C-alpha cells in the first residue's frame, strides 16, 4: 500500500491508495498538483483557527440525547495528564445491530489496528495511533465521548468526498465574474440531507466501495444516486446520466485533501478520515446540463455559487476554499 509523504505539495502523476469505509482501493490522478495534509498535526493548509478538532467536541452527540464530557482546549491532547477523565461510552443502536459495514464490539473480536486487517484498512493518514485497553485512541485527542457513536469502525472510518464543480455562466455562455474580487465564480453541487446533518449543506458523500471496485467508480455511482437520483430514472435516462458522469469522472481529478476530518460523529475511539477529490466540468458539457434531483438520502440538491459565506458541514468549506484557489476562482 502506498501512502503519500506528509508536508509536501506534489505535482505530476500520483498513485494514491486509500480506503472508503474500510476497503482499500486505488485511484489515479495525473498532471495536477495535490494538497496532502494532516489536519491535527499542525501542518495543514486548513486555517489554524479551525482546529484541533472543535466539531468533534460538540456538546450533544448528533442523532442522540447523549452529552459529551466537556474537554477544555488544554486537555485535548492525550499527552496532557487528566486522571479524572471518564467520558460516557456510546454506540448507536444502528451500529450495535451489526450491519455489514460495522465492526463487532471489542471483546467479541480483536481487530488488528494500524494495519490492513483482512478487508478493512485500519491505517490512518495521520500516522500510527495509540491503542489502549484494546481500543484505538483518536489521533487528534480527547472528544469527551468513548465508543463508536454513529461510526461503524473502531479507529479510522475512511470515506471520500467528490467535489463536482462548473463555472457560473451568463445567458451567452460567458463566465460570470464576482463584482468584488473580479474572479470567475465557481459553482458546486450541494446536498441538503434528510438525516441528523440536515441543518447544514454538504458535499455528496462517497458510499461503500464494492469488492474489487475502483474508488473513482464508487464516487461516480454515489454521485449519480445522490445528486441525480439515477435509481428512479428510466433506462434511457440512466444511460444518458452514465455517459456524462463517466466522461467527467474519467478525467484527472484534483486531490484536494487527505486526512482527519473534524466531524461531530467522532469519538475517542472512532473517527472520520477522507480523501476529497475535485472533478471539474470545465466546458460545461457533462453534468452541468443534467437536471439535479435528490436521491433517497438527500432532501435537496442544487448548484450553489462557491463563496466563503456559504455554511457547510464539517470540513467541507475548507475543501472548497482549496478548490477555489486551485481554479483561481472567487472565494
From TrEMBL:
The keyword Transmembrane does not apply. One of its GO terms (molecular function) is ADP-ribose diphosphatase activity. Residues 1-29 form the signal peptide. SUPFAM superfamilies: Nudix. It is an enzyme of class 3 (hydrolase). Its EC number is 3.6.1.13. Keywords: Signal. It comes from the Eukaryota. The keyword Signal applies. Residues 167-326 form the Nudix hydrolase domain. It catalyses: ADP-D-ribose + H2O = D-ribose 5-phosphate + AMP + 2 H(+). PROSITE patterns: NUDIX. Monomer. Interacts with GLOD4. Hydrolyzes ADP-ribose (ADPR) to AMP and ribose 5'-phosphate. Belongs to the Nudix hydrolase family. NudF subfamily. This is ADP-ribose pyrophosphatase, mitochondrial. It comes from Neolamprologus brichardi (Fairy cichlid).
